[in-house]
Amino acid sequence: MMSATDATWSVAMNGRATFSWDYDAGNERLLSLYRKGKDKQWDQERRIDWDVPTDPDDPLGMPDVMVPLYGSPTWAKLGPKNIAELRLHGAAWQFSQFLHGEQGALICASRLVESVPGIDAKLYAATQVVDEARHTEIFSRFLTERVGVQYPINQNLASLLDDTLTDSRWDLPYLGMQVLIEGLALAAFGLLRDMTTQPLARQILAYVMQDEARHVAFGRLALRDYYREIDARERAEREDFVIEACYRMRDRFLWTDVIVALGYERSKSPETRPNREALRMFQRALFGRIVPCVRDIGLWTDRVRAAYADIGVLDLADVDLQAAMARDEDLAEQEDRARDARVAEVGEMIARGADG
Ligand SMILES: [Fe+2]
Ligand SMILES: [Fe+2]
């Protein structure tokens, strides 16, 4: 598909650009989301407190269980230097996938502007284009300034993006990006935000999540209406897409890219690490924002339910998305207050210094 040294990757796009002359048409809920999207833009330069230091060996501040090879016989033989390297590369891999995923979201959102039939959805999607550009910028800056190592895109993520973009049907970028990839990213952001010991990483994740909540709401609004109208054959095609993508997400080999890159294993074979249980819990949690959303948009059919039962995530359908997103909003505002308090404290110190 692509090599790690390629500077670009091109995917053939199918489908049509659609104009809408009905400028007055619009779903009130979509238009209010559009207003919110315009209203809530922010700039990393001003909102993120880049003065906050990060631990150069551990910029993501993750517990050991999240470090590649943790708990394996190899791990037991490693010295502190190798462990620090694994920790740094684990962070680099994780944030690199966020970075490439954000660029994928940027491209999918601009695709939606072109292909979605309604003017209300086009307007909203345009605000998402800017959101995803800002997210790409932030993850890129964090990786360059605080991590110093960047990984190429994971093959499973690349395949998912490829499937999403090559399809000519206008709803597929919504389903692939807004529901599945964004759902996965949102869950991963949330887990890391709640686990990290590093304030800068927590701040970035909390702020990005605040925007992502709107993107998921957008996908749900648009697809819920559309999937009510489609026929049985069209529905079955969407089910196939969801089922295949979810298996691929479950099977993505967490950390193997890192283990191979550092020379611990030669091939991307399934991992033989003993902390599989922790990994499985993490993998399961990644479905927490996808499963309830798939139910919500009306693809909750016998086949989809059977697949989720097989993956072991069927019960996640009951996750309260509204409550999760309200918490995301609160945590972002909490970060704003903490930053304001820090800035005020520094200001006071400077004033006191000037007086003395
Ligand atoms: Fe994003
Ligand atoms: Fe997004």
The H/E string reads HHHHHHHHHHHHHH
CATH level-two architecture: Orthogonal Bundle
Which hetero ligands occur in this complex? fe (ii) ion
What structural class results from the helix and strand content? mainly alpha
- In this structure, how is the largest beta sheet organized? none
- Spell out the CATH superfamily: Ribonucleotide Reductase, subunit A
Could you name the CATH class?
Mainly Alpha
Overall structural domain count: 1
Number of helices: 14
Percent of residues in helical segments? Answer: 55-70%
Silhouette: globular
Give the low-pLDDT segments: none
- Assembly level: single chain
Task: Determine the CATH topology.
Answer: Ribonucleotide Reductase, subunit A
GO molecular function: oxidoreductase activity
InterPro entries: AurF/CmlI, Ferritin-like_SF, RNR-like
Organism: Actinomadura rayongensis
Protein name: Aminobenzoate oxygenase
